[in-house]
From TrEMBL:
Protein's recorded name: Peptidase C39-like domain-containing protein
Source organism: Desulfotalea psychrophila
Region forming the signal peptide: 1-24
Keywords: Signal
Keyword Signal among UniProt keywords: yes
């Protein structure tokens, strides 16, 4: 069974012009970090402090499955550390090891807690849903700032989601399986030039606008986090890079930086929607603590960090900026994506211990980007930018066929690759002769889907879809909207052509046809004695499945063909909508097309005989073809399903349940 992630996102715009974020997808190798420190350093990351990881002191192991669970250290100085794994973080039982480590580090600012913990969930490097780490702390030591230790030993700040200074308990979250620690922030005056980030060198040159229909609320979160990632991993100079015009086939030019900003924002939109409400609801996290958190992170990592600006009364009008320096009066210098190449500041009032309003935003909160794991790595976006971005549109390349090709079989599997433009394409649809065929697109851009062609020239239309910042699937432009792709099929025309598609991935619907003799086509008996044929059994979602009766086959004129759909298995994914299209008299002047839609909520893999009934079945239509197409109409050819319950007697043997199951498993294995 596939693990599905249902994410409910809150649409939160980054105001003035908009909002966005992004960070690298570090995948820690769970081996001692001091062995990994020999690898090459990144331009600015190496300027921060490094942790030296030692030996395990206390180790606890526990099996945790898909429903989640807890594991706790009960001895030693890390006693009371609890790791909470939420439901859906794992899709199977995993042996989780929680250890205290003898590692050490020397902070530039603050006091090391003398605690390093190691979370190892088998072979996993990250979690599907964020885990929570709850740690006790002594408030007399200061305010604890939690860090994720990446694969090179450098610190990345984690997101605090709960803190109780009276009880001395802090909870932070992470998607990463790795080492973690925390540093107590003090009230010492920091050194100037905490990082080498400069807005005119390291921010975007473009101004923060949204990209319809993907990021209409703005891209400040994506711009802020990508600017930090680039500074961290690639060095200075983002401002003057990726400034070339990139032409869209549908018209107009955009800058390379525009594509980066949109892609980065879409990659991290889940994090924005997940943590903005948590920050606004976080109790006990005073402005004094937030200021200390910012200073501690800048001092110890030497890398800028993201600030979330908001008003307590509403989620609307939120904004993300980059904090990169702080002076002796605790004024924080920021890069604001709304104002490229401008130095702005957020003032901390040392008398009231509160942040003063900035551009109408009354509250300031730091975002722990070391917590996050993004949909698309920024490394991939950077590589595409280095290659010049072929287009802001999605670029669809068909690898299985060439345009204008003549094929010998009307049932064709079209494969290809999608190069992403301003969005990660998740779904592709091909519309051919009145039928829409759908397929998911892999993270690498590959796709494969089966279609049925008409005789003669076919002009399929390709539609690409991506998720916007609110997790809605929207259509994005692609190159094949400007280029006509054709395929020719000289196959025999069909008297009846039935196509089944559905809209739920990882589900299994089956198309059945029962002919006038009682013979049938199903996944376990595809071809009737008359030659009617089911082409394919799609067990993984969407379809299509086709049944064809051609003029060259034996056609039972003026007799009934019954079309049915069965929900074999939902694989745990619930109900699905289906569409059935019926084409009659192909290639004649009376060619007709009719569509039928419905919804099946029940599934039953053992109720799959051709004449079985139940909530997992849908009777679609009974077709009575007229021998002469001249003067024929779909109204005459189509008849309603009998209301008296009478059905033809099945005269063809039905395989045993064991044989039918074997057929389904064989198909799935292929």
């Amino acid at each position: 069974m596939k693990l599905r992630y249902l994410v409910q996102l809150v649409t939160i715009s980054c105001c003035f012009f908009a909002g966005g974020l992004s960070v690298a997808n570090d995948k820690p190798v769970l081996t001692p970090i001091n062995m990994l420190l020999l690898s090459g350093n990144h331009p600015h990351e190496s300027e921060g402090i490094k942790a030296q990881v030692g030996d395990s002191i206390e180790t606890i192991q526990k099996i945790i499955g898909s429903t989640g669970g807890e594991i706790e250290i009960t001895q030693g100085s890390a006693a009371g550390v609890i790791v909470t794994v939420p439901p859906g973080a794992f899709n199977e039982d995993i042996s989780v090891t929680l250890s205290q480590n003898s590692g050490s580090l020397s902070p530039n600012e603050g006091v090391f807690s003398d605690i390093v913990i190691d979370i190892t969930p088998g072979e996993l490097t990250h979690f599907a849903n964020p885990i929570q780490i709850t740690v006790p702390f002594n408030s007399s030591n200061g305010f604890p700032v939690p860090y994720y230790i990446n694969e090179k030993g450098y610190l990345k700040p984690c997101q605090i989601v709960n803190i109780d200074t009276n009880a001395g308990i802090m909870t932070f979250e992470t998607y990463h399986a790795s080492f973690f620690t925390w540093i107590y922030s003090l009230t010492t005056i920091p050194r100037e030039d905490l990082t080498k980030f400069k807005t005119g060198d390291d921010g975007f040159r473009i101004t923060n606008y949204g990209t319809a229909p993907l990021t209409t609320g703005g891209e400040c979160f994506g711009m802020s986090t990508f600017a930090i990632w680039y500074f961290d991993k690639k060095g200075s100079g983002l401002y003057d890079k990726y400034w070339s015009n990139i032409s869209a086939c549908t018209g107009g030019d955009v800058k390379g930086q525009d594509i980066i900003a949109t892609r980065a924002h879409l990659s991290v939109s889940r994090q924005w929607s997940l943590y903005v409400p948590k920050l606004q609801q976080l109790q006990g996290f005073s402005d004094l603590m937030r200021m200390g958190w910012i200073r501690n992170v800048l001092s110890n990592t030497k890398i800028p960090t993201v600030l979330y600006l908001y008003n307590n009364s509403s989620h609307n009008g939120t904004h993300a900026v980059v904090a990169y320096d702080m002076n002796e009066l605790n004024t924080t210098y920021i890069y604001d994506p709304n104002y490229p190449n401008s130095t702005k500041s957020v003032v901390f009032n040392n008398s009231t211990h509160q942040f003063e309003s900035y551009n109408g935003y009354g509250s300031v909160a730091p975002l722990g980007t070391g917590t996050f794991f993004y949909k698309e790595s920024f490394e991939n976006i950077w590589k595409d930018a280095e290659n010049g971005f072929s287009s802001p549109d999605a670029t669809v390349e068909i690898t299985s066929h060439t345009s204008g090709e003549t094929v010998q079989d009307r049932n064709q599997t079209i494969t290809g690759d999608v190069t992403f433009g301003q969005a990660i394409v998740e779904k592709i649809e091909i519309y051919v002769n009145g039928v829409t065929y759908s397929s998911t697109v892999s993270s690498s851009g590959s796709f494969s889907l089966s279609v049925t062609l008409d005789s003669g020239e076919n002009k399929p239309k390709f539609t690409t879809k991506a998720y916007d910042q609110a997790n809605n699937l929207v259509t994005v432009s692609n190159n094949l909207q400007c280029e006509q792709f054709t395929l020719n099929a000289p196959s025999d025309d069909a008297v009846i052509l039935v196509t089944l598609t559905w809209d739920k991935n990882d589900t299994d619907l089956d198309l059945y046809t029962i002919d006038p003799t009682g013979d049938y086509s199903a996944y376990y008996h595809k071809i009737t004695g008359d030659g009617g044929e089911l082409d394919y059994d799609d067990t993984n979602g969407y379809g299509p499945e086709h049944w064809t009766l051609q003029y060259s086959d034996t056609v039972r004129w003026d007799q009934d063909y019954r079309i049915r759909v069965h929900y074999y298995s939902d694989h745990g994914n619930g109900g699905t909508n289906y569409d059935v299209t019926v084409k009659l008299y192909e290639g004649t002047d009376k060619e007709s097309l009719q569509s039928f839609s419905g919804y099946l909520s029940s599934n039953n893999s053992s109720n799959d005989g051709p004449n079985d009934t139940g909530a997992d079945w849908a009777n679609i239509v009974t077709i009575r073809p007229v021998q002469t197409a001249t003067g024929a109409s779909f109204a005459r050819a189509k008849m309603s399903i009998s209301k008296d319950g009478s059905v033809p007697i099945i005269t063809v043997p039905v395989p045993s349940p064991a044989e039918r199951l074997e057929a389904k498993q064989h198909i799935h294995a292929e």
